[in-house]
Design goal:
elongated, 3-stranded antiparallel sheet, 5-stranded antiparallel sheet, Jelly Rolls, 3 helices, 40% strand, alpha+beta
């Protein structure tokens, strides 16, 4: 079985936002999969997706501070036409990546106890973001 859909996430502020529930809610068929994979791909170059700790609210705060130190807005970038937050957003997205793949078993995502899927918004004022979700697996 293969299924695919695109979901539109609302505009989020700059930072790291848990999106696991939105992804799962968009795919009720996931509950019927005995074994499979869910691929999550973001259709943007200034935001990213990742898997990280979902329990401590300090983690996304520290991640944002760390990435801002790695790719600061005041660096001497050549690409500046879209504003000072654009090129740092591209750098951050390049480091984190545009997709994650999560195993599925017995109708649920097989994330670790403290893991969640994050939308990483790297722009100060971005519009909503699109995720392409592709589910493959055997129904049980």
């Amino acid at each position: 079985m293969w299924q695919q859909r695109t979901i539109q996430l609302p505009a989020f502020s700059r930072g790291f936002h848990l999106a696991t529930d939105r992804v799962v809610d968009a795919f009720p068929e996931l509950r019927k999969v005995r074994v499979g994979l869910l691929h999550v791909f973001i259709q943007h170059t200034s935001a990213s997706v990742m898997i990280n700790e979902n329990a401590d609210p300090d983690v996304p705060v520290d991640l944002e501070a760390s990435f801002n130190a790695i790719a600061p807005e005041d660096f001497d970038y050549t690409h500046t036409i879209e504003g000072p937050d654009d090129m740092p957003a591209h750098v951050k997205a390049a480091m984190l990546g545009s997709s994650v793949t999560v195993p599925v078993g017995e109708g649920r995502l097989l994330l670790g106890t403290w893991q969640g899927i994050y939308l990483c918004e790297h722009r100060n004022r971005a519009a909503g973001r699109r995720l392409v979700l592709t589910l493959q697996g055997e129904a049980g």
